[in-house]
Records
---
Amino acid sequence: MLSHWRSSSTYEVEDLLHYKDLIPRLEVALRKFSKLDSAEVIQPVRTTVPLQKYNGFLGLMPAYLVHEDILCTKLVCFYKRESGSTLPSTQATVLLFDPEYGNVKAVMDGEVITAKRTAAVSAISAKLLMPTKSDVLTILGAGHQALSHYHVFTETFSFKEVRVWSRRKETAERFAQSTQGHVTVWESVEEAVNGADVIVTVTGASEPVLFGQWVKPGAHVAAVGACRPDWRELDDVLMRQAEVYVDSREGAVAESGDIILSGAKVFAELGEVLNGTRPALREKTTVFKSLGMGIQDAVSAKLVFEQWKNKH
Ligand SMILES: NC(=O)c1ccc[n+]([C@@H]2O[C@H](COP(=O)([O-])OP(=O)(O)OC[C@H]3O[C@@H](n4cnc5c(N)ncnc54)[C@H](O)[C@@H]3O)[C@@H](O)[C@H]2O)c1
Ligand SMILES: O=C(O)[C@@H]1CCCCN1
């Protein structure tokens, strides 16, 4: 089947999952994950099955949060698509289990969960690490993650200017037309990030698109794409000049080409900053390298399930 099927579950999850509920739960989960002695969170590094023939991979993302008793796994397929393709690059399904008996309690769409929880975690990173006075937000990429990031960043913060760049100008223009607030479209990354306080990279690139020489000192970069060990979104200069924060060290050193290939050192996990065990170096140039975690899907799925039960 070549066309993309958005099930009713996609719309249902969209209605049930809200950033105001999701962000505090993600913060709690990130805190627990980063406690050194924590036996409360079980989350192996994602298993990936490369599909080289099709330029993609299947990822399996199980997690168990012991205290909350949430057992969950996401199955996600990601493909690098040709410019102009209308097929989705991410397709995902989330399974929520009853941990006591092992039965599946719910099967739900994972695309909205992936879009919203990833953007919400980037917003948590920005809350902790962006310059105190942040006026300009630039989004590089104009797909699903670009939109969810636009929504949560404009809901959570008050930027004076929002800019977008995409490798095809028409896509960036369509993106700008689809948003409620005013978004300016830029033709080059260099111009789009000039003077930006916060930069979100949400592209399908496997070579750097953002170069350190263009980034304002002290800016915060939420780097969401490039999730394979040989893929890049950011260049070596940026990776080496910035303080690098991650969601999971273990995940980052296994999966992030930006970290592995640049040799950059990870300064802290977001959960360590939330726990107060590592500082938020807001005045420095910071990169939050996001890879995505099973626990983020697990708390999102639990929230969706709770909201669904309240309605039925
Ligand atoms: N960190 C996480 O938790 C997480 C979660 C989901 C997705 N992602 C990643 O986020 C990125 C965006 O995902 P999405 O769902 O928005 O995808 P999408 O296909 O909806 O959008 C991708 C965007 O990147 C652009 N793009 C593709 N190839 C490019 C290239 N070579 N150079 C520059 N731009 C390019 C496309 O034109 C489009 O604007 C992907 O890399 C995906 O793997 C990360
Ligand atoms: O954490 C995730 O859900 C995504 C899936 C696609 C690739 C990157 N990470």
---
Amino acid sequence: MEVQITCDNLKLGYGAGVLVDELSFTVEKGDYLCIVGENGAGKSTLLRTLLGLQKPLAGKITFGGGLQQNEIGYLPQQTFVQRDFPASVWEVVLSGCQGRCGLRPFYNSKEKQIAKNAMEQLEIIPLARTCYRDLSGGQQQRVLLARALCASDKMLVLDEPVSGLDPKMAETMYRLVERINREMGITVIMISHDILEAIPYATHILHMGREYFFGTAEEYRRSRFGNAFLQPE
Ligand SMILES: Nc1ncnc2c1ncn2[C@@H]1O[C@H](COP(=O)(O)OP(=O)(O)OP(=O)(O)O)[C@@H](O)[C@H]1O
């Protein structure tokens, strides 16, 4: 298999505070890696580091298998300000093509087609003219997923994409992400708080906390980490 990301002995943190130390794992093309763990364990910090928005304090990240760091689509955790964004759904999705424009100040027909395809995949074509801030939380997340899909057809990185959604909308989101992974062959890295809901879709699990676990979903189920965290309450 083609290895797209190799993390070698990563140390992450802010100033003198170290959040993550000696973390190593790999991501192969087509994987669905679910990152789980305690609050404040550094999961979002790890994603930002993978995207190059932050530098590791030590260790190395290597990209391969035809993937470059600037070819990763990102769905960040939503803030309240973003929820109020006064643009149409079409404009928000198309803005995912910004990285493809270079210095060109407009979107060309190829980029518009990419945005249209992404909206078809996410079943949001009827919402194209609707104002983003008038959508439900679940619809907004679909729009942001389509936007991330415009940025990359190789890898998507999703920071808690179902947080704040009701169980039905969360299920729809998981189903759409699964389709993107299985049918389109796009590698997925997703942070999830809801480990029981997320694990059926994952091929691999990275558990972050005082100790780390990295392995296949099956290995995780059989591990002491899985035993402790997969028990229904
Ligand atoms: N820019 C920053 N400067 C300083 N500290 C930060 C910064 N961003 C995050 N932190 C701190 O780093 C710690 C880990 O944050 P991070 O968001 O990576 O954890 P997380 O595992 O994603 O947590 P959660 O599950 O709560 O989202 C937190 O204590 C947070 O306050």
